Amino acid sequence: MQLLNNLALATLAHPQVQILAQAQSDGPVGPEFGKASPIGLLILVLMGVAVLMAGWFFHRRFSRFRRRTLFAQDHGIDPFDQDAIDKAMKEAGIYDNRKKSYF
């Protein structure tokens, strides 16, 4: 009871306390509040496509790197000498002529 009386006196002395303690009555409410928009779905789809493309580009690049490294090790070529590896792969007939990725 004493606590309730102190709270009532504090509310009368400081009206800001009452304002801060009240819940907001205005704002977005109703059946449409909190629903996702189609733009959010578009953003998620675009992010998913970007992640898949990045994974695909990485896989292509890493596979090419691994294939060249193994070829260089098998033939006793320095793995960092790209010209020698290209020449040896062309002579062996396994050089990859496809366009190289920019990524």
Count every helix, treating DSSP H or I runs of 4 or more residues as helices.
Answer: 4
- First-to-last CA distance: 72 Å
* Rg of Cα set: 34 Å
Low-confidence stretches: none
Characterize the structure shown.
This protein is mainly α. It has one domain (2-92). It has helices at residues 2-13, 15-21, 38-74, 82-92. The longest helix has 37 residues, at 38-74. The model has no long low-confidence stretch (mean pLDDT 79). It comes from Corynebacterium phocae.
Q: In summary, what is this structure?
A:
The protein has 103 residues and is mainly alpha-helical.
Give a topology summary.
Blueprint: H1 2-13, H2 15-21, H3 38-74, H4 82-92
Helix pairs in contact: 1-2
Q: Which terms would index this structure?
A:
rod-shaped, mainly alpha, 4 helices, 103 residues
